[in-house]
Design a protein that fits this description.
Blueprint lengths: L11 E5 L5 E5 L10 H23 L4 H18 L6 H10 L5 H19 L7 H11 L37 H16 L6 H15 L6 H15 L11 H6 L1 H14 L2 H39 L4 H12 L2 E2 L1 H8 L3 H13 L4 E2 L9 E2 L1 H8 L16
Antiparallel strand pairs: 1-2, 3-5, 4-5
Helix pairs in contact: 1-11, 2-4, 2-12, 4-5, 4-8, 6-7, 7-8, 7-11, 10-11, 11-12, 11-15, 12-14, 13-14
């Protein structure tokens, strides 16, 4: 780590590790922020965008139409930032067929399990160090990093940098263990404190702080992004987990990492906050757009089932394919409470209408995909030019 870049940082201090290397310890939150018109305006814009998304969630005839696929989309994109290459279709195919899992699919599925667990756990336990450890144990179960103390904060020094780098040539060295524990205690106090800061500003600060503390030997990035969704839902800012910021961070991966580093090196809080708020604006708008397209498709499919006088189970299956865009007869049988032949009959009816397509090509263990639903979910959102994103230049 080039200590010259961190020596005069207003965001923290340098300390020596037990091995004699230098590490960075962030100051407790909140920092002193300098507000200007652009930051105030973007904070308001992000809040309005998130409010529109939350309002849409309230009006859904069946919220699970979007919750199930959106959580999985977030899991795929957050894991992709860390190097996995599993697609949403691959994850959904595994969940439908329970075929042998590839490593990347296991990692993404663990993210789904951790997020769903966290959302339920919030009913009895607030965001806390205890909950963070519980999430980490689920995230790391049975995947690479499973020997890196799942569910436990690290007891040794870690570092961040290019693959294969050592402490000697690391880009960044997080706090040593003793300072890490102190920093985590301060972070937990901030999580529970009453502040006058807008919640989205609070959230941006928390996300930075967690990533810089880097309290686990592996899985820090994914846990840090999990906390975004859990914070929004715990605070009631989002009534349903429909926002997936990982899509924005994945599109602007290098910029994302650079902003975190710039805060540590020179206290560039404004630039990080503008970047984070723009992520909220863009991804809220994207989620609203996809949700509306899915709801339009949902209405069209129901209209088709009525006009073509499809069997009642086919109409019920239309509802299911938006929650489970990849499925097989067993999944249909379980959800619709019908016999196996009844499930296959419903599937065949939607295949005839072009709503479902068989995707395995085999005679046994067939699986079916609602390709128009998947297309809406998987469509890549184009990156906006840097000058159009709001921001550091304003």
């Amino acid at each position: 780590m080039d200590i010259a870049l961190f020596q005069n940082s207003p965001s923290g201090r340098l300390v020596r590790t037990v091995n004699g290397y230098w590490a960075f310890v962030p100051n407790p939150l909140p920092p002193k922020l300098e507000w200007d018109d652009a930051l105030v305006s973007l904070t308001s814009k992000a809040g309005l965008a998130l409010g529109t998304l939350s309002g849409l969630g309230e009006t859904l005839p069946n919220p699970h139409l979007l919750i199930y696929p959106f959580i999985r989309k977030e899991a795929v994109l957050s894991s992709r930032i860390e190097g996995t290459r599993s697609s949403l279709s691959e994850l959904l195919l595994f969940e439908a067929t329970r075929a042998e899992k590839q490593r990347d699919v296991r990692e993404v599925q663990n993210y789904v399990r951790a997020l769903e667990y966290g959302l339920k756990r919030l009913n009895e336990l607030p965001l806390s160090l205890r909950l963070i450890r519980e999430l980490h144990a689920i995230l790391m179960e049975g995947v690479r990093g499973e020997r890196a103390s799942p569910g436990e904060f690290r007891k040794s020094q870690n570092w961040i940098g290019p693959p294969g780098c050592t402490l000697n040539d690391a880009t960044f060295v997080p706090p040593p263990v003793t300072e890490m524990q102190e920093a985590l205690d301060h972070l937990e106090k901030f999580l529970h404190a009453d502040t006058t800061l807008p919640p989205l500003i609070e959230l941006a600060l928390i996300h930075y702080q967690f990533e810089i503390i880097h309290p686990f030997l592996d899985g820090n990035g994914r846990i840090g992004r999990l906390l975004i969704t859990l914070f929004l839902c715990q605070r009631g800012i989002l009534n349903k987990p429909l926002l997936y910021l990982s899509a924005f961070f994945e599109r602007h991966r290098q910029e994302y990492y650079q902003h975190l580093l710039d805060v540590s090196q020179r206290g560039a809080w404004r630039e990080w906050l503008m970047f984070f708020l723009q992520a909220v604006v863009e991804q809220s708008g994207d989620a609203v757009g996809r949700a509306r397209r899915l709801l339009d498709l949902h209405r069209n499919y129901h209209q088709t089932s009525l006009e073509k006088r499809l069997p009642p189970t086919a109409g019920q299956l239309v509802e299911l394919i938006f929650m489970r865009p990849v499925l097989n007869p067993k999944v249909v049988q379980e959800h619709l409470k019908v016999t196996y032949p009844g499930a296959q009959k419903a599937i065949n009816a939607l295949v005839e209408q072009g709503i479902l397509t068989e995707i395995t090509g085999g005679k046994r263990n067939k699986a079916y995909a609602a390709k128009e639903v998947l297309a809406i979910l998987e469509e890549e959102m184009p990156s906006q030019p840097e000058g159009d994103r709001g921001s550091e230049k304003e």
